[in-house]
Write a structure and sequence with these properties.
The complex is a heterodimer.
Chain A lengths: L19 H12 L12 E6 L13 E6 L6 E6 L3 H7 L5 E4 L7 E7 L2 E7 L7 H12 L4 E4 L2 H4 L7 E4 L5 E4 L4 H7 L2 E6 L12 H17 L1 H10 L4 H8 L20 H10 L3 E4 L10 E5 L5 E4 L3 H7 L8 H14 L3 H13 L8 H13 L2 H6 L3 H7 L7 E2 L2 E2 L9 H9 L12 H4 L15 H18 L6 H6 L1 H15 L5 H22 L27 H5 L5
Parallel strand pairs in A: 5-10
Antiparallel strand pairs in A: 1-2, 1-4, 2-3, 5-6, 7-8, 7-10, 8-9, 11-12, 12-13, 14-15
Chain B lengths: L1 E4 L10 E3 L8 H7 L7 E6 L2 E2 L11 E6 L5
Parallel strand pairs in B: 1-5
Antiparallel strand pairs in B: 1-2, 3-4, 3-5
Classes of the chains: A alpha+beta, B mainly beta.
């Protein structure tokens, strides 16, 4: 962006086997100065589809984005649905790398089509929310246009800003955590439009072999009860009740493991509410998704309220903030999608703001007022938009649930000890998807490891982080992990599709080696950025017992550090 | 004792019910009484802890029964 120029380059040999997170993390590690200011000229923002994106492989449409995170100060990768991964992959674009800073303080947009990439100044949509950006651009460029955009929060370069990706039916999916929206804002890019007309599509070396493996894959996804039915019928919010029963639902800023109002914010209630208001119980965020975990949630007048209404968001604004009004939480979800801010971080921000006494716990109208204020750019709004750690610091609090500066999500690490190891060790900061031990600690997928005991948690988190790093490189939705963990044929089919596409002969061990390599690359970047093992720790207050089990976080530093023994 | 059902297990049954405790009954037996097929069960929690179908219940226990579910 420094000289407003574009160059197209051939894929270097050493990057050919990489895609998605594997590619973004490799490029960040190789080309971004680890000590740089994340909003400065040395940071790079990289978008990359996965290795299987835009092939007939079910659930392969995830787009990865990577950079140095303004929130954590470490390496960051996010992935999201929508159309953009498939747009890029069809056009043969392996990565879009944005570097430098523009000379003037004006905004730009990028347009990507068969002729290349053009950069133009943008004024009309500056300051507008993502929904208006999507609406305007679709009217102008047609229903098949791919859109990546930031809202006002990204324009203001606040540390919790996210990046939005348009779905084919004009909903928004988010590259949510760690402030990538602020990086895009620092490069003064308001939106990127992608027109894949006349694109060549993804070449497949052995189409017959691919088709055969693809069939086994799709069958495995559809036959597993989680990926085939549960996610479709209840969405992710079904987790509220099970975490509540298990005593791991963080309540009132991580004081308790159960929430009195749990039923009112449960997946069962979301499901019944959607049904009674003519919304959509199932919805797929990208073409080729067979799991259909998202939904369309209407208000009581059957008007659109929000979509992609997830467990993490509902937990944060619900149990963690003591609000049991689903409609108010849905309104917040809509606003956050529109202003472009991470809903997990913001929910924890609200609970910390309540801890600080800015508003009382349970104050739903107050919560909405604060969320709206973030988009308006007032000093308080800007503080809130910088995340839970910033708010905690401004009010002199110690009960601030963050790791590496990123807010802890919807599972208490004391009573679900495996996820505590993931929170502590993942290079991403407190991140639940990086190594989703809930599957095995709570849901009994891929075996069972008792969530209340320390035994086996480090190994569990490590294995999941390694395989997740690989899955994140394929463009696959992380929920494929449910069938993959329980059904070896699914994992084999995934590798077979990759081999059939590229004419290579990767093995399961190669896949795990790649996962390990990605994790180590990310870890090394963080070390070079100034992190040490002292950053692989949970806040002190987790020594406090959490009811109902009165569980505590009792891993020693040495035990946590054994995570990196691989 | 108390029995709590979740997600699809509530269909045609109930959300929460007081249950007559029978000395020596296992989780298995309650599943039979509820007409819930063992292979449809995802997670069983007794007093908020994971349990298997052969778990011997005690007076005052709370049994929570989930079908196979997931999320993230």
């Amino acid at each position: 962006m420094t000289r407003l120029t574009v160059s197209a380059e051939e894929v270097p040999e050493q990057w050919k086997g990489l895609g998605g997170r594997g590619l973004t993390s490799t490029i960040v590690a190789q080309e971004v100065k680890p000590t740089c200011h994340p909003l400065g000229k040395y940071n790079k923002l990289i978008f990359a589809p996965g290795l299987l994106s835009a092939t007939p492989c079910a659930n392969s449409g995830r787009l990865s984005a990577g950079a140095k995170s303004p929130l954590t100060g470490g390496i960051k990768e996010c992935n999201a649905g929508g159309t953009a991964a498939q747009n890029f992959a069809r056009m043969g674009i392996k990565a879009l790398i944005i570097e430098g800073l523009p000379p003037k303080d004006v905004f730009y947009s990028l347009h990507v089509d068969k002729n290349g990439v053009s950069i133009q100044e943008e004024t009309e949509l500056v300051g507008k929310g993502n929904y208006e950006v999507v609406k305007t651009l679709v009217e102008k460029l047609g229903k098949k246009i791919g859109i990546i955009s930031i809202g006002p929060v990204g324009e203001m370069r606040l540390a919790a800003a996210n990046i939005s990706v348009r779905t084919r039916d004009d909903y928004i999916r988010s590259l949510g955590r760690g402030g990538l929206g602020a990086v895009m804002g620092s490069k003064r890019i308001k939106y990127i439009t992608i027109d894949d007309t006349d694109s060549p599509g993804v070449p497949i070396v052995d189409p017959e072999k691919f088709k055969a493996a693809g069939k086994i894959w799709a069958k495995a996804l559809v036959e597993h009860p989680v990926s085939g039915q549960a996610l479709k019928n209840y969405g992710t919010d079904v987790l509220v009740n099970i975490l509540n029963e298990a005593g791991g639902l963080p309540t009132k800023n991580f004081r308790y493991g159960q929430f009195e109002g749990h039923e009112k914010i449960s997946g069962e209630t979301v499901n019944a509410t959607i049904a009674s208001r003519a919304g959509k119980i199932s919805h797929g965020c990208h073409a080729g998704c067979v799991m259909q975990c998202s939904q369309v949630y209407n208000d009581k007048d059957k008007q659109y309220l929000t979509s992609g209404f997830e467990y993490e968001t509902i937990w944060a604004f619900g149990a963690d903030s003591c609000i049991d009004d689903l409609d108010m939480i849905a309104q917040a979800d809509y606003i956050m999608d529109d202003i472009g801010i991470d809903s997990i971080e913001t929910g924890v921000v609200i609970a910390v703001a309540m801890e600080a006494g800015i508003i009382p716990f349970g104050d739903a109208p107050g919560m909405l007022r604060l969320v709206k204020e973030i988009g308006s750019g007032t000093p308080l709004g800007r503080l809130l938009g910088c995340g839970a750690a910033a708010v905690g610091q401004a009010y002199g609090l110690t009960r601030v649930p963050v790791v590496k500066g990123q807010a802890i999500p919807a599972y208490d690490p004391r009573s679900v000890k495996g996820i505590g190891i993931t929170y502590a060790t993942t290079p991403m900061g407190a991140d639940h998807t990086a190594g989703y031990t809930i599957a095995t600690n709570i849901l009994k997928v891929g075996g069972f490891v008792d969530p209340l005991k320390k035994d086996g948690q480090v190994e569990l988190s490590r294995n999941l982080q390694i395989s997740t790093a690989f899955i994140d490189s394929m463009g696959l939705c992380i929920f494929v992990a449910f069938p993959v963990l329980d059904n070896p044929a699914a994992f084999t089919a995934m590798i077979d599709m990759l081999n059939a596409k590229d004419g290579v002969s990767m093995t399961g061990d190669d896949a795990l080696s790649l996962g390990k390599q990605i994790l180590k690359t990310e870890h090394e970047f963080n070390l070079a950025a100034g992190f040490t093992n002292k950053d692989d720790r949970l806040p002190d207050f987790f020594e406090e017992p959490v009811p109902p089990h009165n569980a505590v976080w009792d891993f020693t530093d040495e035990e946590i550090d054994t995570f990196w023994n691989f | 004792m108390k029995v709590k059902l979740f997600a699809s297990f509530r269909d045609g049954r109930f959300i929460e019910k007081e249950w007559d405790y029978v000395e020596g009954s296992t989780v298995s037996r309650i599943l039979e009484e509820l007409n819930i097929n063992k292979k449809d069960v995802g997670v069983l929690l007794v007093n908020s802890r994971h349990a298997e179908t052969d778990y011997k219940l005690e007076k005052g226990d709370t049994l929570s029964i989930f079908p196979v579910i997931g999320g993230g």
